[in-house]
């Protein structure tokens, strides 16, 4: 094992992270930058530094995290979500609660708001809570200012209606920015921040976390979902086998799952 592999083998399990998913070259570079800033030049000395300074784990953890997102990411899923989930929820007329977990800089939560606004007719209230562990990301979400690359899947007419040019970037309409409640939340150790009709958990827990953590998270989400509520995963992600009986896929091949029955009843 290389010095770096040994370092990963010791640091990833306590953080609940699965090594396979990590983009190692980037992460290695980030960690080496951190090591330099504290005057350390090899991974085994940095391991000793972590043992002596437990607060250093809080600095290390974000270095393993990927925070890339964009509006309408994998656009087909959002089209299906609008027609198969949001539209029927709106037709019921009851207030709707949604959670975008691992929301990065808010792109996914704002996409949800835009889809809701675009539904025809009278709609009940939709409240959206969006959470992430990364405070910098949450701050950017509150600013509502994005590079062009964040809008590359946004349909042209939506982009014209909801974004204005500002220098080389795009500013999202203020009322959309204000319509989402952002807060810090750690998926690995905190319960879902409420009860929901819809949870988006895409390209975070089910890619980067270990299998036991994924199972704990899907179980907590299932319990926080109203009967018949929906969970959306990322395009290449899978529900843990242990949770398969709690959900059915709304519209294959998309990763939109509807909660079947109370989790406790399924578990027996
Ligand atoms: C690749 S982004 C995904 C963003 C968005 N869901 C999407 O699919 O476009 C992953 C996000 O998960 C967040 N994250 C990583 N670990 C987390 C944790 N333990 N709790 C909450 N969020 C976490 C990261 O900060 C990052 O913003």
Task: Describe the fold and architecture.
The mean pLDDT is 93. The protein is built from twelve helices and ten strands. It folds into two domains: 3-64; 75-267, 3-Layer(aba) Sandwich (Rossmann fold), CATH 3.40.50.150. The protein has helices at residues 3-15, 24-37, 43-52, 56-60, 75-92, 107-118, 135-143, 156-162, 174-178, 205-208, 211-224, 263-267, and strands spanning 96-101, 126-132, 145-146, 163-166, 169-172, 180-184, 196-201, 225-233, 247-249, 256-259. It starts with a helix and ends with a helix. The site of S-adenosylmethionine has 22 residues, from loops.
CATH topology of the largest domain: Rossmann fold
Whole-angstrom Rg: 20 Å
Bound molecules: S-adenosylmethionine
Number of helices: 12
CATH class category of the largest domain: Alpha Beta
- CATH architecture verdict of the largest domain: 3-Layer(aba) Sandwich
Give me the CATH superfamily of the largest domain: Vaccinia Virus protein VP39
Shape designation:
globular
What is the overall pLDDT average?
A: 93
């Amino acid at each position: 094992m290389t010095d770096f592999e040994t370092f990963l083998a010791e640091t990833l399990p306590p953080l609940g992270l699965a090594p396979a998913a990590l983009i190692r070259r980037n992460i290695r570079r980030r960690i080496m930058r951190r090591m330099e800033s504290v005057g350390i030049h090899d991974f085994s000395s940095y391991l000793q530094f972590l043992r002596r300074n437990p607060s250093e784990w809080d600095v290390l953890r974000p270095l393993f995290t990927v925070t890339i997102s964009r509006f309408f990411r994998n656009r087909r899923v959002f089209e299906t979500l609008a027609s198969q989930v949001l539209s029927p929820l709106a037709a019921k007329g009851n207030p709707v609660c949604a959670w975008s977990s691992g929301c990065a800089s808010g792109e996914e939560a704002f996409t949800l708001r835009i889809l809701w606004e675009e539904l025809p007719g009278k709609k009940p209230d939709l409240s959206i809570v969006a959470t992430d562990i990364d405070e910098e990301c949450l701050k950017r979400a509150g600013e509502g200012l994005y590079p062009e690359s964040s809008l590359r899947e946004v349909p042209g007419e939506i982009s014209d209606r909801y974004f204005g040019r500002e220098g080389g970037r795009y500013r999202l309409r203020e009322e959309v920015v204000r319509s989402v409640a952002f807060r810090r939340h750690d998926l690995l150790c905190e319960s879902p921040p409420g009860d929901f009709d819809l949870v988006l958990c895409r390209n975070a827990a089910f890619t980067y976390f270990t299998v036991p953590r994924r199972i704990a998270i899907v179980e907590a989400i299932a319990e926080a979902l109203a009967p018949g509520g929906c969970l959306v995963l990322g395009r290449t992600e899978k529900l843990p086998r242990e949770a398969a009986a709690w959900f059915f896929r709304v519209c294959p091949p998309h990763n939109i799952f509807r909660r079947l029955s109370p989790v406790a009843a399924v578990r027996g």
